[in-house]
Amino acid sequence: MNITNQKLARLAGVIYLITVITGVFSLMYVPNKTFIWEDPKKNIQLFQEFEFLFRLSIVSEVLCYSAFLLLPILLHYLFKKTNKYLSRLMILFVLVAVPLSLLAISHKLDMLDTLGNDSLSQIDAEQLQSQIGLYYNKIKIAQIFWGLWLLPFGYLIYVSGILPKLLGVFLMLGGIGYMVNFVGPILFPNFTQSIIPIVAKIPSSIGEIGTCLWLLLIGLKKEFRYED
């Protein structure tokens, strides 16, 4: 089979776009609509008000991680001639991240069971809050590997020259940012109240969205062929 890397790059861009869109929807937009840490009882009302949106977020999150699993495999074919070990390392980190992320979704399914009661008075607000906490604890562990995979990915972009080096720099900084946001709250209780968590997320957002759009709309800076 003879296939151009330009086509592989565009396909990777499509998969990356699916990952980004479904991730933003399920991990940012829906939680902002349904999760309020300070008021467990209000959570129940929000969940019931946005029940379909919450159910849709579960499907979206599964789709996100499924696409995420495929992404580094496609990228491996683009970068294996640059450094086959680092391109494999990308896959390894994602292979750890995806099962952890999917395991976290099981707690969303538990939330659905808890919310299955018809009467608000029968729903245990504290139990629901505990399930939200368990979900986010597993997501935090998964985020370690969401960050780690960006380090070899960013480095491969930087040294290969097939994508803008600046994108590689942002991806590597983004990987470090994930580590900062994981370690910070553990070491410093007031960490989340500072501006650091927001600043630490910026490089990964620029790097990942920028790389996604570049692959999708422009492709590679250098054209070559991969034969298998």
Can you characterise this structure?
The protein has 228 residues and is mainly α. It has one domain (2-218). Helices cover 79% and strands 3% of the residues. The termini are close together. The relative contact order is 0.14.
Secondary structure: elements and pairs:
Layout: E1 2-4, H1 5-34, H2 40-49, H3 51-79, H4 84-114, H5 125-148, H6 150-160, H7 165-187, H8 196-217, E2 225-227
Antiparallel strand pairs: 1-2
Helix pairs in contact: 1-3, 1-8, 2-5, 3-4, 4-5, 4-6, 5-7, 6-7, 7-8
Strand content: under 5%
Question: What would you call the structural class?
Answer: mainly alpha
| Low-pLDDT stretches | 224-228
Principal-axis shape: elongated
Rg, Å, rounded: 19 Å
Question: What attributes does this structure have?
Answer:
228 residues, mainly alpha, two-stranded antiparallel sheet, 79% helix, 3% strand, disordered C terminus, transmembrane helix, DUF4386 domain-containing protein
